[in-house]
Amino acid sequence: MGLRVEKKYLSAGRLQSKESTHLVTVEESKVSADSDDEFYDADKVDPSQEVQSGDVNAEIGNTNQEETYSLKEELECLVHGGLPMALRGELWQAFVGVGARRVEGYYGSLLASEGELEDGGCSDSLASEGVDERPEVLSAFSAEEKCKGQIEKDLPRTFPGHPALDDVGRNALRRLLLAYARHNPTVGYCQAMNFFAGLLLLLMPEENAFWTLAGIIDDYFDGYFSEEMIESQVDQLVLEELVREKFPKLANHLDYLGVEVAWVTGPWFLSIFTNVLPWESVLRVWDVLLFDGNRVMLFRTALALLEFYGPALVTTKDAGDAVTLLQSLAGSTFDSSQLVLTARMGYQSVNETGLQDLRNKHRPSVMLSMEERAKGLGVCKESGLASKLYNFKREPEQLVSINDSADQMSDVADGDVDQEGDSGDVDDMYGALTVNSEIDSLPDPKDQV
């Protein structure tokens, strides 16, 4: 023990002597140098010290990167575990980037234009400028009136009975939906936006809800709610391919029943599960989706639901039973933690890169089918899907809820609906669904399974 103490003191003395020697040499160099050299030598740094400082800076940079990565990883874990309800609204705004989007006075100007159109101020100003744009003004006015009519129909259907959506809350919802229809006239208004806006109004102020809604539809779901709904059709074809890859037995059974996956999952995606899952599960799915900044969570959640309820689906004997059963089971998914965990951990292979490759694969067929529909050359499978999704967007009164649609589909499958008399409405909702005449001629599903 004494020897170690002595060595310690001896080493400390040697270090002190070295430091004193170094100080003396520095002082001597300062005295012997010229004035100009003295000025510049004051800023010079010992190369050994330079290397040491560089190493320190590199270590600090690596440490900062590691801390940033660890913080991001920790935040991701917290988001996947569920955001606190008190902070959910603020965090959703941060995920969407409301602060960078906000333009002061823009939301008020969108609502102020309503009075200008009603008073004819817009037409007077155009006439005073000598520009004949009355047909365009009338067309825009007609489109806006149509949006207003659809919004008024959907207001009572938006979370009926919720105390926050009283007369004052519905007025805010009306203003919010009308402002977005004016903000993005190429999209306007379509069903399911009322659920998005109503959900956001429950968590944040009205103007913040507008900018969050704009970010979700313009960025996350770009091309989903346009007139052609191309991206929505593409995603349904991508999901169908994933279902065939992950659940071949279920896919074969649905083919046997004549059921397309998009009949159920189309409204799931368009509504982002707001009118499908229980409230807590909806919020948890939205947490992850908005944090990720893409639509990957939509696919993972849909696959998780099919994994949960696929064994029950393969026991159904007709299309109506399959759609009704899946919808009712999805509505009873109360274990939100299990849903998010299965979606995240069970389907990690479903990522944005792979989805983009599949979208690029299926998009040309969708574009071709859209061109064929426009030319009237024929209707293919994708165009049937387009018809169904189009009606979900433009005819909200036909698809108030997927349960009503499933009931009507069940009637068709059971032969309770006259095909010749009422086939028009059913074809509009389900893309030329004709399964009742096929089911009777097919063998028992248990034998095929």
TrEMBL record:
Name of this chain's protein: Rab-GAP TBC domain-containing protein
Biased composition (Acidic residues): 413-428
Domain of life: Eukaryota
Gene3D superfamilies assigned: putative rabgap domain of human tbc1 domain family member 14 like domains (1.10.8.270), Ypt/Rab-GAP domain of gyp1p, domain 3 (1.10.472.80)
SUPFAM superfamilies reported in the protein's UniProt record: Ypt/Rab-GAP domain of gyp1p
Domain Rab-GAP TBC, chain residue ranges per copy: 82-293
Any matching Pfam family: RabGAP-TBC
UniProt GO MF annotations: GTPase activator activity; small GTPase binding
Region annotation (Disordered) ranges: 26-48, 402-429
